[in-house]
Write a sequence for this structure.
């Protein structure tokens, strides 16, 4: 079979989607759809940024393989969306090796320092393949340093992924306190989902360094960016973001205005008698009720405008 490796071209977008979703659903039993993967709907816009790119393996006009490199900053990359059709696998065909070689050649040309990827323990063949090509395993008790200053504990993400893999449990994944690239946040969610459960809520909750007068730096404005790049609903936590009860209602409404799908708000019948953060940032029941009412009104307004 004559197979060629080429950079992504828009005329093959449907073929890429069919290849990837078929393997995800039928072979990996991951209940995820094409529409839940925004990067597949806009491959060029998502991956062709700085050193990033996307490549195809083609047999005639049929897409039989794919691989992507996402630039995550600080001269680091993330390997994503590597899939090969079942009838084109194995050392004899060499499709996977050729795709990876093209990606590594591109990475060296752009002087990337390292490339990260995530795969689950059950894909032993994938582990052997990547190790053969120079990748090193990050052990469970180690952390992977991601550019932007945040630390993603791979062992914890793996444990969560395994724990919810065969269940309908919904995971509330909060953004790391130290400000980092959005792709780092999204990659953490995708790693958990790779074990088979895509029911993940992304939760912006403020980052560092703190903005004067607030507990953290409010980051509800990243909501539309997250919704453009991922399938996961966004639930904003204004309580930890601003850290002061009198500011929480306004921050909550700002999050709704940005398109948040939900809010995570701390409340207490008597905040001054609460523990931990309650005295500072918990809303009383009546203020919470008013905030919920206003949030629903704003949400309804946004939906009516979207329809017009």
């Amino acid at each position: 079979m004559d197979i060629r490796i080429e950079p992504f071209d828009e005329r093959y977008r449907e073929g890429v989607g069919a290849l990837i979703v078929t393997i995800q659903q039928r072979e990996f039993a991951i209940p995820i759809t094409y529409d839940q993967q925004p990067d597949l709907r806009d491959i060029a816009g998502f991956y062709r940024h700085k050193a990033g790119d996307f490549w195809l393996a083609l047999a005639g006009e049929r897409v039989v393989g794919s691989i992507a490199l996402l630039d995550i900053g600080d001269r680091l990359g993330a390997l994503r969306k590597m899939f090969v059709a079942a009838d084109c696998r194995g050392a004899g065909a060499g499709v996977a090796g050729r795709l990876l070689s093209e990606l590594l050649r591109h990475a060296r040309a752009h002087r990337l320092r390292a490339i990260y990827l995530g795969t689950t323990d059950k894909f032993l063949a994938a582990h052997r393949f990547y190790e053969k090509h120079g990748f090193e395993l990050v052990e469970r008790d180690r952390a992977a340093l991601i550019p932007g200053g945040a630390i993603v504990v791979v062992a914890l993400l793996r444990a969560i992924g395994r724990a919810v893999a065969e269940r309908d449990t919904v995971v509330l994944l909060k953004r790391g306190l130290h400000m980092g690239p959005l792709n780092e946040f999204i990659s953490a969610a995708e790693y958990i989902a790779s074990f088979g459960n895509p029911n993940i809520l992304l939760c912006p909750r403020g980052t560092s360094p703190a903005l004067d007068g607030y507990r953290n730096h409010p980051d509800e404005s990243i909501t539309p960016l997250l919704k453009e790049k991922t399938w996961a609903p966004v639930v904003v936590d204004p309580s930890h973001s601003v850290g002061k009860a009198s500011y929480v209602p306004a921050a909550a409404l700002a999050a709704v205005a940005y398109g948040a799908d939900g809010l995570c708000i701390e409340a207490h019948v008597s905040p001054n008698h609460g523990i931990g953060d309650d005295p500072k940032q918990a809303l009383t029941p009546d203020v919470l009720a008013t905030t919920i009412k206003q949030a629903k009104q704003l949400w309804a307004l946004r939906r009516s405008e979207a329809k017009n």
Q: What stands out?
A: The first strand starts at residue 3 and ends at 7. The CA atoms of residues 267 and 288 lie 7 Å apart. The first helix runs from residue 13 to 27. Residues 140-308 form a domain with the TIM Barrel fold (CATH 3.20.20.70).
